[in-house]
Amino acid sequence: MNFPNTSSSCQSNPTHTYRATLSLPRTNSLIFLLPTTKRRTLLCTLRITACHESKSPQIKPNNPSLNVSLQHQSKSSLTESDICPELHDDIGNGNVGDTNNLGGNDNGNGGDSGDGDGKGKGDDDDGKAENGDDEFGPLLSFEEVMQETEAHGVTLPADMLEAAKNGGIQKILLLRYIEMQASAWPLGEAVKSIPLLRNRMLADPSFLFKVGTEIIIDSCCATVAEVQKRGKDFWSEFELYTADLLVGVVVNVALVGMLAPYARFGRASASQQPGVLARLQHAYDALPSSVFEAERPGCRFTVQQRIGTYFYKGVLYAAVGFGCGLVGQGIANLIMTAKRSVKKSDEDVPVPPLFKSAALWGAFLAVSSNTRYQIINGLERLVEASPVARKVPPVAMAFTVGVRFANNIYGGMQFVDWARLTGCSVPAKMHPLR
């Protein structure tokens, strides 16, 4: 297309460069992206008066001081339809895209082609990563975050405030926090004061449901097993049952919480701090919370990191199992010893070895529980991301209940086998561990 400086008509000539005298208008802007390279564009605002009847668009400069000369090669040549009024309306509404990056922008959402909302979609992964435009919504600037919090009368915790200053906070995470901190006591206060709970609830609103499901299922299974095994002696040995139940609650919270996804705030500033501990903290922050955690903008995980997560969580599970084994088995052994000092019976089973039993708990959690719960997290992620679960959330909740119930039954039977193989007796009070 060739636009002479003095001519009032538009001539189509794709083999030559064009030169046009243009001005910057106050209204009726038409935005063209003139690509120099694939990722570098020049944004021009044009005022075009088109002759609809004759299809002879004219370019009328209103301010010679703002004249702009454009040179465009044949590969990016324009046609009359590009500047027709009808097309002008379509482009202005974001309804038209072409192969020359029309409709993109230079803040990370641009791409190779325009779509219905005026945003390019080609190579949009980097743009989403920069803007945080994923399931958690767009990234809000510090000013926008403060406006939102002031409107609701909310004060952000220190780490969230720092994250807002450094790079912003995604909209959905901010709105979830505003809603959760206003919950009734004790949940509202816990969200404000316990970052471990807050961050997991922000990333997964069903986190408490999963923890509660795990505790209820395990407690019910333990109670049924205790009543069946103890029979008429259940109430006389109720303290043993209670000790096992309390330890089981701690284990269940750890099993679910350590693999749950969480919102990550202040990671950049932590990684810049010197020292070995800071580097270790940065390396830990770079790992996914579970092997099958979904990737999000700013959270990309390699295969090596996912494999490393399995072994790292195994170590944490082993520590939790060994510690809870010492406490739980220690309490049980103390009660059993105290009772036998008062009344002995030929039917008494030997007191289980403390450290050997604790080591069994640690090894079982590190290998069996770690593997099973990693798989459960992956399955729950697939179900929650399915179209059916998005439309009907109770589907995902029902799946969580079913898969965790089956896992608890299987884990209990497997623990009995492990105890027999290692020579550790499993007294009636010891519900097979998770």
Fold and architecture overview:
Keywords: Chloroplast, Membrane, Plastid, Transit peptide, Transmembrane, Transmembrane helix. It comes from Carex littledalei. This is Protein RETICULATA. Pfam families: RETICULATA-like. This protein has three domains: 63 residues, no CATH class; 54 residues, no CATH class; 218 residues, no CATH class. The protein contains 15 helices and four strands. The strands form two sheets. The chain has a two-stranded antiparallel sheet. It has a two-stranded antiparallel ribbon with strand order 3-4. The longest helix is centred in the C-terminal third of the chain and has 40 residues.
What's the topology here?
Layout: E1 30-35, E2 41-46, H1 85-92, H2 124-131, E3 139-140, H3 142-152, H4 158-166, E4 169-170, H5 171-181, H6 187-193, H7 195-203, H8 207-230, H9 238-257, H10 267-271, H11 276-286, H12 303-342, H13 354-385, H14 387-391, H15 394-422
Antiparallel strand pairs: 1-2, 3-4
Helix pairs in contact: 6-7, 8-9, 8-15, 9-12, 12-13, 13-15
Beta content = under 5%
* Mean pLDDT over all positions: 74
What is the oligomeric state here?
Answer: single chain
Structural class by helix and strand composition: mainly alpha
Helical residue percent band:
40-55%
Strand order of the largest sheet: 1-2
The figure for the number of domains is 3
Contiguous runs where pLDDT drops below 50 for at least 5 residues: 1-133, 427-433
* Major sheet details: 2 strands, antiparallel
Number of strands: 4
Distance between the termini: 73 Å
Q: Encode the helix/strand succession as letters.
A: EEHHEHHEHHHHHHHHHHH
Shape: elongated
Radius of gyration: 32 Å
* Tally of individual helices: 15
